[in-house]
Structure formats: structure tokens, C-alpha cells
């Protein structure tokens, strides 16, 4: 059977793939978005929902700049998606804090933030280390265990599920072709000439973007690329809905637009195991109750785990293949935060045919360390 | 609107639903008491304020949320009645007192 021709194939229907596919469509590129079935790991359906800047890019100022650029692109993205789909993404960017529960945590955080500012150079990095007495005026019912926090004005949060739905709706409304149950089973590559076989038929295009999350590890080599990503498990607890009480998100605690309070940010190296573990859940709850003792009075109504898509150094991977120009990768563990950049900065680069030199540090070539003789 | 089945065990437990006494069988759920009380709704949703009554009766839909013995947002279908239990309206999202 002849493959269906398009101008671009995007593999992966999660937040990363959908944002890029929408961005390509908005550039006038006829795009097909291939999504796996519900057997996929679906990081986009399990994430926390921060649009988060302050922790991104210690020792990697290019990552800090990319993240800031995405956070700055978010308001326009949210407004555009709301106008096109009627969906409210519950974007709220009031700034955010990272709470420190000991003097040691506070000193460590202060040193990290100072280093971020030094590395940011002329780009700047607005932040403050705030001691508990002042913090109590900013956040209601802060626990006595909190000694202080780092604050930046760049942070915020949004509804990740509304974002995913809005990206998909806007993509198809703009004429994009969404193909579900289209696990890629084979692929062939030549410069600006790509073909993939899927359970839902064959597709061909002069451009292909691999945005299949953990699936990229196996897909990338087919197209002259590398994506050495591994799963890192995170667990989340969600409380019953409460009237608005938290004016801003923290790194691990946020109140959603619907009123639930999400607690999270565990990190476990357990392969593809998506089960939950009571000791980790208990530690998440313990730190939340130390931060805000009134949280202990709320019922937990849901909990889940999901797998982050992690490169060896924790940074995103963006590449275009040298061997097969037209083939790109996009991998990250911040599909919400980076949605603005993916839709409005990265996709236009793919449409134009080359990645901006500012993305060069994100190439997977950084992992090609010469072996010692 | 709702009646107990004819073969149901005798109603021996008295609870208070929105301040009105209702007799229900031992082991029945608080949501069953709400239905037997004949109330059109037992909560308003947290976002739109839309009225809701017990629906799935198996812990899934959260439409039976009620204040039970002073505790907010209980799933009434998952709580067995006790003598003198107070089951009251859950009006929207609960508050927290930091």
C-alpha cells in the first residue's frame, strides 16, 4: 500500500508531540500526528502541572534560558488555545517558591540560586531567599518546620490535562491529521525522505519529529539519531477540593483551578514499574504536612505514579540528524513548562528546516564521550 | 422517589439527614439514608454549584458528598450508618482554616 503523504510526521501524541504538531500546522506544514494506544506510558496524563522555571538549569544556563522563554510564551499560548478551543487552561503565573525545611536545605538552596544568577549573566535571574517570618505573610498557615524559601517571579502552573486536550483540539481544528493506535513498527530514512509503518497504515514525509517520550530510545536510531532516555518514576497525591487557599505554587504543592491540592515530586529509579509505594507516598504527605500543617486535615482522594522521560543529565534533548536531515528529536520531562517553547519556538525551526544554534547544547552528541584508550 | 425493597431488613437505626430523622436498616450507607429522606440533592458541586444526589452508590462518582458528623466531603455511599449520625449538605468546596 502506498504511504499517505504529508509534509511532516510527528511521532508521539503527548504534550511534546501535540505542541510541536500544532506549531507545525500553524506554520502551514501539513502534519500527521501518530499516537500510540493506551498501552503507552502516557507521561502527559500523569504529570504535576507546574510551569516551572526556578529549578531548571543549574550549571546549564542554556536550559534556564529555554525554560524562561517557554514560560514567557505561555500566556499567549494559553490565550490562543482558549480562543480556538474554548478550554480554560487555568494558567496562573504568580511566581513560586521552593520551601526549605531545614537550615541546611536553606543554605544549599541559597547557594544554588546564587550560582544560577551568576551563570545567567546579562540575561539576569530575579530571585530572593525569603526567611520564614516574611514568608508567613505570603503563604497561609505555613508550618513551624519551614525555615524559608527561594522565590522567583517566573514560576506558575496550569492544568496539564486541559493543555493536552486543547493542543489536540486546536491541531485537528487547524486541519492536522491525528491518527490514534498508530504504534510505529518500522521506519526508513533518507535525507528529507522518511517513511514509517504503523498499525494504522504507512505514512511518508520529508520531515519527521520524534516526540515519543521513552519510546524515542528505540525509535531514534532508525533515523540517524540518539535519545538515551530512561524512565524516572514520580508519585502524586491529590486531596479533596477546597476553597482557594494557596496563592502560589511551591515545587511540590499546588492548588488546582478546581480546588484540589496536588502533592508530589518524588524521584525513583525503578525502570518501567508504574506501581505505587506507600513509603514514598507517606514521605510526600509528611513533607506536605510539615510545610502546611492544615493539609493533614484534607482527605487524599487520588494517587498515581507516572514515568518521567529523563536524559542522563536531566536536560532535554533536541537534535536534527546529520545523516538524515529532516529528522528531529524532542525529549524532555517538562512537557507542560516547555509547551510554549515547543509550539511557538521549536516547531517554527523544524518548519524552516534547521534548529537555531542556541539549541546546540541540547544535542544528544553531548553524551558521546570518547572512550579512554 | 426512593423506597426500600420489600424484602429489606427492618429499619432499626435512626440518623438525622439535614436535621430530619430517618430510619434505615443496620449496615445501610449514609447515601441510602439520603435517598430515603427524599431530598432532591445533598451537595452543590465545587465549581458550578450544580445540585447533586447519590448516584453510583459504589464509591466512584463522588456525587453523594456530604458532611457526616461534622466531617466534610465524605462519600456518603461508603459510610455505614451509626445511631444518631448527622448527615448534612456539602455546599461546594470545603474551606480550610490555615
Characterization of this structure:
The complex is a heterodimer of chains A (373) and B (98). The mean pLDDT of chain A is 96. Chain A contains eight helices and 19 strands. In chain A, strand 11 and strand 12 form a beta hairpin. Chain A is globular and about 65 Å long. Chain A folds into three domains: 4-47 and 161-229 and 313-367, FAD/NAD(P)-binding domain (3-Layer(bba) Sandwich), CATH 3.50.50.60; 96-153, no CATH class; 230-310, D-Amino Acid Oxidase, Chain A, domain 2, CATH 3.30.9.10. Chain A has a six-stranded mixed beta sheet, covered by helices on one side. Chain A has 373 residues and is an alpha/beta fold. In chain A, 29% of the residues lie in helices and 24% in strands. With 98 residues, chain B is mainly beta. Chain B has a single domain (11-91), classed as Roll (Ubiquitin-like (UB roll)), CATH 3.10.20. Chain B has one helix and seven strands. In chain B, strands 1, 2, 3, 4, 5, 6 and 7 form a seven-stranded mixed beta sheet that branches. The termini of chain B are far apart. The model of chain B has no long low-confidence stretch (mean pLDDT 93). The interface between A and B is medium-sized, with 15 and 12 residues.
The SS-based structural class of chain A is: alpha/beta
Give the CATH superfamily of the largest domain in chain A. FAD/NAD(P)-binding domain
The residue fraction in helices of chain A comes out at 25-40%
Radius of gyration of chain A: 21 Å
The Rg value of chain B, from CA coordinates, equals 13 Å
H/E element sequence of chain B: EEHEEEEE
Number of strands of chain B: 7
Q: What is the CATH top level name of the largest domain in chain A?
A: Alpha Beta
Q: Which fold name is given in CATH as the topology of chain B?
A: Ubiquitin-like (UB roll)
Largest sheet report of chain B: 7 strands, mixed
Low-confidence stretches of chain A: none
Number of helices of chain A: 8
Domain unit count of chain A = 3
Please state the oligomeric state of the protein chains shown: heterodimer
Amino acid at each position: 500500500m502506498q504511504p499517505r503523504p504529508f509534509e511532516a510526521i510527528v511521532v508521539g501524541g503527548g504534550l511534546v508531540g501535540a505542541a510541536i504538531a500544532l506549531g507545525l500546522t500553524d506554520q502551514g506544514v501539513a502534519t500527521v500526528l501518530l499516537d500510540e494506544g493506551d498501552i503507552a506510558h502516557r507521561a502527559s496524563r500523569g504529570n504535576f502541572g507546574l510551569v516551572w522555571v526556578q529549578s531548571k538549569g543549574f550549571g546549564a544556563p542554556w536550559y534556564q534560558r529555554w525554560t524562561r522563554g517557554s514560560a514567557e510564551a505561555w500566556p499567549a499560548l494559553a490565550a490562543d488555545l482558549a480562543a480556538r478551543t474554548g478550554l480554560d487552561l487555568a494558567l496562573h503565573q504568580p511566581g513560586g517558591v521552593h520551601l526549605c525545611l531545614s537550615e541546611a536545605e536553606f543554605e544549599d538552596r541559597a547557594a544554588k540560586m546564587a550560582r544560577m544568577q551568576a551563570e545567567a549573566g546579562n540575561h539576569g535571574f530575579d530571585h530572593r531567599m525569603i526567611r520564614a517570618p516574611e514568608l508567613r505573610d505570603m503563604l497561609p498557615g505555613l508550618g513551624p518546620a519551614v525555615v524559608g524559601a527561594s522565590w522567583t517571579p517566573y514560576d506558575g502552573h496550569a492544568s496539564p490535562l486541559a493543555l493536552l486536550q486543547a493542543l489536540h483540539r486546536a491541531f485537528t481544528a487547524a486541519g492536522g491529521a491525528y491518527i490514534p493506535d498508530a504504534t510505529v513498527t518500522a521506519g526508513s530514512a533518507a535525507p528529507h525522505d522518511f517513511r514509517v509503518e504503523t498499525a494504522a497504515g504507512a505514512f511518508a514525509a520529508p520531515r519527521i519529529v520524534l516526540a515519543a517520550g521513552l519510546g524515542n530510545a528505540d525509535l531514534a536510531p532508525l533515523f540517524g539519531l540518539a535519545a538515551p532516555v530512561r524512565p524516572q518514576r514520580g508519585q502524586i497525591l491529590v486531596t479533596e477540593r477546597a476553597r482557594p487557599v494557596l496563592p502560589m505554587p511551591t515545587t511540590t504543592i499546588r492548588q488546582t483551578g478546581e480546588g484540589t491540592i496536588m502533592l508530589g515530586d518524588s524521584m525513583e529509579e525503578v525502570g518501567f514499574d508504574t506501581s505505587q509505594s506507600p513509603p514514598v507516598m507517606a514521605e510526600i504527605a509528611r513533607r506536605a504536612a510539615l510545610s502546611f500543617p492544615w493539609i493533614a486535615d484534607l482527605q487524599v482522594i487520588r494517587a498515581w505514579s507516572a514515568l518521567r522521560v529523563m536524559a542522563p543529565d536531566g536536560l532535554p534533548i533536541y537534535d536534527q540528524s546529520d545523516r538524515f536531515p529532516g529528522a528531529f528529536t524532542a525529549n524532555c520531562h517538562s512537557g507542560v513548562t516547555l509547551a510554549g517553547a515547543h509550539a511557538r519556538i521549536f516547531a517554527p525551526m523544524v518548519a524552516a528546516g534547521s534548529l537555531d544554534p542556541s539549541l546546540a547544547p541540547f544535542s544528544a552528541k553531548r553524551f558521546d564521550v570518547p572512550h579512554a584508550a | 422517589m426512593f423506597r426500600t425493597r420489600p424484602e429489606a431488613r427492618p429499619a432499626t437505626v435512626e440518623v438525622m439527614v439535614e436535621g430530619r430523622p430517618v430510619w434505615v436498616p443496620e449496615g445501610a450507607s449514609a447515601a441510602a439514608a439520603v435517598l430515603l429522606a427524599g431530598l432532591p440533592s445533598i451537595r452543590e458541586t465545587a465549581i458550578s454549584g450544580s445540585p447533586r444526589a447519590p448516584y453510583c452508590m459504589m464509591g466512584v462518582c463522588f456525587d453523594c458528598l456530604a458532611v457526616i458528623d461534622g466531617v466534610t466531603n465524605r462519600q456518603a455511599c461508603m459510610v455505614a450508618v451509626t445511631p444518631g449520625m448527622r448527615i448534612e449538605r456539602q455546599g461546594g468546596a470545603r474551606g480550610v482554616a490555615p
